[in-house]
Structures are given as C-alpha cells and as structure tokens.
C-alpha cells in the first residue's frame, strides 16, 4: 500500500514540476514550487515508513518549516521588491 502511495507521490511531483516550469505568472511558479516541497515532505514520510526509519519524519518537519518560510519570503519579495519592507508607511 505504501509503495503505491510512493509511486503516486512521485507522479504528483512530476506533474507539479511541469506546472512550475510552464507557469504563466510568477505566482503560479511559486505555488508549484510550494507543491513540490509538500510532495517532497510526503515522499520523505512514506519512504521513512517503508524503510523503518522514523527520523525521516524529523527531516520532513524541518523541510516543511523551511518550505513555508521560503515561500513567504519569495512572495514578500515579489510584492514589495525588498525583504526588509516592514509594512505600511506611517502617515504624517
């Protein structure tokens, strides 16, 4: 059962890669990259279960955190053009 799930996740990763490369806008490509990251986390979890190595889940959790922070940083950069933008400018 988990071997079939692994094959299905690999198919989803291949489709997400194609969507990321062909995305018409930058935001479609960021969404595709985030989907690839999520698929990689699922793949780590299933391979860790198949091989009997639960420490793969720790690696997956760390990768999920990096995936979230990276996606938010890229979106902030494309919205404001700078990562140090703190928000709204105070009105005088």
How would you characterize the overall build of this protein?
The protein is mostly helical. The chain has one domain (about 1-80). The chain has helices spanning about 1-20, 25-50, 55-80. Helix 1 runs antiparallel to helix 2 (about 25-50). The model has no long low-confidence stretch (mean pLDDT about 90).
Describe the protein's topology.
Elements: H1 2-22, H2 26-51, H3 55-80
Quick tags:
mainly alpha; 79% helix; flat
Low-confidence runs of at least 5 consecutive residues: none
Distance between the termini: 63 Å
Rg over alpha carbons: 17 Å
Gross morphology is: flat
Number of strands: 0
Arithmetic mean of pLDDT: 88
**Total separate domains:** 1
Major sheet characteristics: none
Percent of residues in beta strands? under 5%
Helix- and strand-based class?
Answer: mainly alpha
| Proportion in helices | over 70%
Q: What is the string of SSEs from the N terminus onward?
A: HHH
Give the helix tally.
3
Give the gist of this structure:
This protein has 92 residues and is mainly alpha-helical.
